[in-house]
Amino acid sequence: MEVGLFTWGFIQCFVVGVLIPVVKRNRNNYWLSSIFIATAFNILFQYLLRFTDLKYRNPELLALPDALDWLLPPLVLIYLQNILGDFFEPKKLRYFIPPLLWMACMLLYMLTNPAYSFDSYIGSAFHAFNLSLLFFWKCSIGYTGYMFFKKRVMYLTKKQRVLIAWPKILLFFLFILCYIALANTLNVLLVDPAYLNDVARENIRILVGLNYVVFTCSIILITIYFAFKYPKILTGNPIVKQVEEADIMEVEAHRKTLVSLIENQKIYLNTELNEKKLAEAMGIPTHSLSRLLNEHMGKSFSEYINHYRIEEAKRLLLDKGKDDLTAYAVAVDSGFRSESVFYVNFKKNTGYTPMQFKKNMSSKAV
Questions:
Q1: Containing H/E element for 34?
Q2: pLDDT tens digits along 272-285
Q3: Alpha carbon distance 298, 155 (integer Å)
Q4: Phi-psi group of 242: left, alpha or beta (phi > 0 → left; psi -120 to 50 → alpha; rest → beta)
């Protein structure tokens, strides 16, 4: 079964990697293709070094799967950034500096060790150091990708958010790579062959191998699924257009102003508040506020403001010192202009009328 999984993994990754640029030739698809082809050859070398005597005849080939392990995370990160609108620039090549430095160190290690062989390298202090360093490198790239995604996703429109699952899958793959690196590192650092019999050692080797190929190939199956569900991901087009830094700063500045008015000044309590007055309070045109709310925050003006008004109404209803307030008083004190509008929005958001909510929460508190 193990041999079959490795074979299946290589063929699947290689075929998908070759076909992606055929579907659409552009820069992003070439990056995506390189991810799958690098994964395919990594699986191939893992297979050859596990199930053939190549590791004894040509131990220098042990460096190849490690080199691909170092190169794969930057490839995924750059592709992730590209499809989220941060197009490739030469400065991104800095992500390949650590892999190149590692390759130089590995080459130096092999050249300065005349007795270098599979048995002298696997399980050695240098091997353990390499695996540990690789784990931290993958974690670093994964964290960089996560922070970039977290920052960029705030500026996606509702239409663009439909495809956000694809970048999430890429992030998932980055952290899968971290998990695989951790499993390999722990296997070398904590599992000492001297304390194991041959059967236990073989079982652990099989588990590590299956762990590697199953989790690595999971990205292929998920990609195929998304390719059928959302064919746009294989067009190579970015999910968002390139976002200028000035635009990001402007949106962020407007967001901070809005949050300040909401949280510090509680402007939503003003029963006369409308989109025009809120925009004036922020010092921006009405269309800019509408774009901020609809495209970047995913809510209309009424949805956004009523959310805070409902939260205020909940607070008033549960305040023992406000038991004498009528429903109309709660509505007005929460920012609603009428009791009927208050009732409709309250039930829509909570599933209860105001009095039902108060009674329900009071009974739970007893």
A1: helix 27-51
A2: 999 999 999 999 98
A3: 10
A4: beta
CB atoms within 10 A of CB 243: 18
Nearest Cα residue to 35 out of 156, 150, 145: 145
Report angle CA 364, 350, 333 to the nearest 5 degrees. Answer: 95
119 token code pair: 């048995």
Residue 268 has, within 13 A of its CA and on its CB side, a CA count of 21
- pLDDT number for residue 273: 92
pTM for this predicted structure: 0.66
Convert the pLDDT of each residue in 230-273 to its tens digit: 677 777 777 765 444 556 677 778 888 998 999 889 999 999 99
From CA 27, how far away is CA 20, in angstroms rounded?
Answer: 11
Q: Return d(Cα 162, Cα 239) in angstroms, integer.
A: 9
Local structure of residue 154 (DSSP, 8 states): G
Structure tokens at 149: 């995604």
Report which residue type is found at 56: Y
Do 238 and 82 form a contact (C-beta atoms < 8 A)? yes
What is the predicted pLDDT for the residue at 153? 73
Whole-Å CA distances, 212 to 7, 52, 357 = 13, 18, 51
Q: Which residue has the tokens 């429109």?
A: 157
Per-residue pLDDT tens over the stretch 78-118: 998 888 877 777 888 899 999 999 999 999 999 898 888 88
Spell out the residues 6+ positions from residue 191 whose beta carbon is closer than 8 angstroms to its own. Answer: 204
Predicted confidence band at 366 (pLDDT cuts at 50, 70, 90)?
very low
Within 10 Å of residue 183's Cβ, how many Cβ atoms? 16
DSSP secondary structure of 222-234 = HHHHHHHH-GGGG
Angle, in degrees to the nearest 10, between helices 275-282 and 301-318: 90
pLDDT digits (tens, 9 = 90+) for 308-362: 999 999 988 888 887 788 888 888 999 998 888 898 888 888 888 888 888 887 6
What CA–CA distance (Å, rounded) separates 33 from 18?
A: 7
Rounded Cα–Cα distance for residues 102 and 220 (Å):
28
Task: Tally the C-alpha atoms within 13 A of residue 73's C-alpha that lie toward its C-beta.
Answer: 31
